[in-house]
TrEMBL record:
It comes from Prosthecobacter debontii. Gene3D superfamilies: Cytochrome c oxidase-like, subunit I domain. The keyword Electron transport applies. This is Cytochrome c oxidase cbb3-type subunit 1. Residues 36-412 form the Cytochrome oxidase subunit I profile domain. GO terms for cellular component: membrane.
Length: 492
């Protein structure tokens, strides 16, 4: 929590931060709590969807519980129920802190927008389960849902843009502010473009599939990635007490992502009925994205030099650090899927699912977990109750996501080889899917472990929001012997 200092400047700074936290407390906790509910639901659906892949008769022949409905519901709950909501909560808090601006007006609008967001997601997911899916990946919810989601998102984005414009911080902005501001503009752009094109412009044919693939890629690269990187660039220096190693590298990473991120997607249909230049440009952009991935990774490494011991003690740094490690992993998998020599084998296989999970859960969600473990105590005035629950949440998440990603890549390589093998021409697609049974069983077990940790994460968070956390002036550390090693800024 906050520390007391005899310096008037320090006291004034602490009071200013406390006022900012108080102003955003309600909307941020609302987003975190609802997002955590959807996260638990998504992981449960992930378990059921995986089981239905290798045991189609599980839970009977009920159409609502078939794989073709459970899988898109699982991903949409992860993306819109958890991902966007939790991302907005982190964005709002970060922008308020970095701009030095309180949320003075419009809280009721944010609550209403949050309620409508959750109602729209609920209706959309129920529609998918009842067979009203549009069959467009990440856009399966009926067409009447997306305008509600868009307006709700803009209701949250506007205050953040306003805070950025009125910022009075004399030392200027950290790169984290750039990423958060960019996400406020990029998500509405890609969301409007994809939905208008696919729902309002009939007769697109194969181009519609390309636009759908473009949306999935850009949602990952231009929303989930900047939110996670913005959080990492804030919390890593905050916890370690060291400034960002290189402002030049941080700017290079930002602008390369901004320039290249919007060109990817069409390579998902390499060899398909699209103009050849479209997949080629997408593939080139995806491979070139390895440059900003490497630049950001190098910058984070240089920033944490000499402070890696804090990963053992700080829950926030541990989650953010390992989340940041998944960023180059997701970049490498994207390059494998986009490269013409390997992508032709891996496209339309389990490897594509592995990329989505490593990006949205491994990189984005792990970083957001770290942010939540830092932000919530400052909003609720109490500390996390259980070190064991935090440790279990971390290790179940790391092992679970690692297993899902590895098995998805191996399964994708086998599946792609079978699909392209002349000897397998007489086997139907269902048989090829059943050949992946061991990998899918491992996925179901992994999602079950993650679900178990997320149930306790939700309970832990609910207790914190209810003000039932530990009353202490010292933060909850994973190793108490390292408390003195934490820099002064980590408590603020």
């Amino acid at each position: 929590m906050q520390t007391t200092s005899a310096s008037p400047d320090t006291q004034a700074d602490n009071l200013r931060r406390a006022a900012i936290d108080k102003s955003v407390k309600g909307p941020v906790l609302f987003l975190f709590l609802n997002g955590a509910f959807w996260l638990m639901a998504s992981t449960i659906l992930g378990v059921l969807a995986a089981i239905k892949q290798f045991a189609p008769d599980f839970l009977g022949a009920c159409s609502v519980l078939q794989y073709g409905r459970l899988q898109p519901t699982h991903l949409n709950a992860l993306v819109y129920g958890w991902g966007v909501q939790a991302g907005l909560g982190v964005m709002l808090w970060l922008m308020a802190r970095r701009s030095g601006q309180e949320l003075r007006t419009g809280k009721s609008v944010l609550y209403v927008a949050g309620v409508f967001w959750n109602i729209a997601v609920t209706v959309g997911l129920l529609a998918i389960l009842l067979g009203r899916s549009t069959s467009m990946e990440w856009l399966e919810m009926p067409a009447f849902v997306w305008p509600v989601l868009l307006i709700s998102f803009l209701a949250y984005a506007w205050p953040m843009v306003f805070m950025f414009g009125r910022s009075f911080r004399p030392e200027g902005f950290m790169v984290s502010s750039w990423y958060i501001l960019a996400a406020c503009f990029w998500f509405p752009w890609i969301f409007i473009t994809a939905n208008v094109s696919l729902h309002c412009l009939p007769g697109l044919g194969a181009l519609g599939a390309g636009i759908n693939a473009w949306y999935v890629h850009t949602a990952i690269l231009l929303f989930f990635t900047p939110v996670a990187l913005g959080a990492a660039y804030y919390f890593i220096p905050k916890i370690t007490g060291q400034p960002v190693a290189s402002s030049q590298l941080s700017q290079i990473g930002f602008w390369l992502l901004a320039v290249l991120g919007g060109w990817t997607g069409m390579q998902h249909y390499m060899g398909g009925p699209l103009p050849a230049w479209m997949p080629a440009v997408g593939a080139a952009a995806a491979v070139l994205l390895l440059i900003p991935v490497g630049v950001v990774g190098l910058n984070h490494h240089l920033t944490t030099l000499g402070k890696h011991n804090l990963v053992a003690s700080s829950p926030t740094l541990r989650f953010v650090f390992f989340g940041a490690l998944f960023y180059p992993v997701s970049g490498a998998i994207l390059a494998l899927l986009s490269n013409f020599s390997t992508g032709a084998t891996l496209q339309f296989t389990q490897a594509w699912y592995g990329f989505q999970i490593v990006a949205v859960y491994g990189f984005f969600s792990m970083t957001v977990f770290g942010a939540i473990y830092y932000i919530v105590p400052r909003l609720t005035g109490c500390e996390w109750l259980s070190v064991r629950l935090i440790r279990n949440h971390f290790w179940f998440s790391v092992y679970g996501i690692g297993a899902i990603v590895v098995t998805s890549l191996v399964a994708g390589a086998q599946q792609g080889g079978d699909l392209n093998s002349p000897e397998m021409w007489d086997q139907d697609f269902m048989q090829l899917a059943l050949n992946l049974r061991p990998y899918i069983i491992a996925r179901a077990i992994s999602w079950a472990l993650i679900t178990w940790s997320n149930v306790w994460f939700l309970i832990h968070l609910m207790l914190m929001v209810a003000g039932l956390g530990r009353r202490s002036s010292s933060p909850t550390l994973l190793e108490h012997d390292h408390e003195e090693a934490l820099p002064h800024a980590a408590h603020a």
